[in-house]
Write a structure and sequence with these properties.
The protein is mostly beta strands. Helix content is 0%, strand content 49%. Strands 2, 4, 5, 6, 9, 10 and 11 form a seven-stranded mixed beta sheet that branches. It has a four-stranded antiparallel beta sheet with strand order 1-3-8-7, with no helix packed on it.
Length: 126
């Protein structure tokens, strides 16, 4: 059974940084693309960032491009989201997700992801 466990969320002032981690188990991590999504209060879940299975390709939502960076450590079965220059509108629960199929590309579509974590709260104060 695939398990994805996010950590690293918290409260930060606008302009600050956080690094989220997602530890994966129950899958051959190094052949699956990974992604981060977020859901703000009263809003639908939205794509944030994705990375393909090898780490050679990444994809970002326009709202975070240039501020966030996704990376992965296949030896540690962990995917990261480095978030810099945080804004109050980045406040959300952040979810880690794994592609449904191996050797997947970096994709923005939630339907391409078959396993999800429980989420970690990120709150950015103004």
């Amino acid at each position: 059974q695939v398990q994805l466990v996010e950590s690293g969320g918290g409260l930060v002032q606008a302009g600050g940084s956080l690094r989220l981690s997602c530890a994966a188990s129950g899958l051959t991590f190094n052949i699956y693309g990974m992604g981060w999504f977020r859901q703000a209060p009263g809003k639908e879940r939205e794509f944030t960032a994705a990375i393909n299975w090898s780490g050679g390709s990444t994809y970002y939502a326009d709202s975070v491009k240039g501020r966030f960076a996704i990376s992965r450590d296949n030896a540690e079965s962990t995917v990261y989201l480095q978030m810099n220059s945080l804004r109050p509108e980045d406040t959300a629960v952040y979810y880690c997700a794994a592609n449904s199929r191996p050797f997947g590309r970096a994709t923005q579509y939630s339907t391409d992801f078959g396993s999800w974590g429980q989420g970690t709260q990120v709150t950015v104060s103004s």
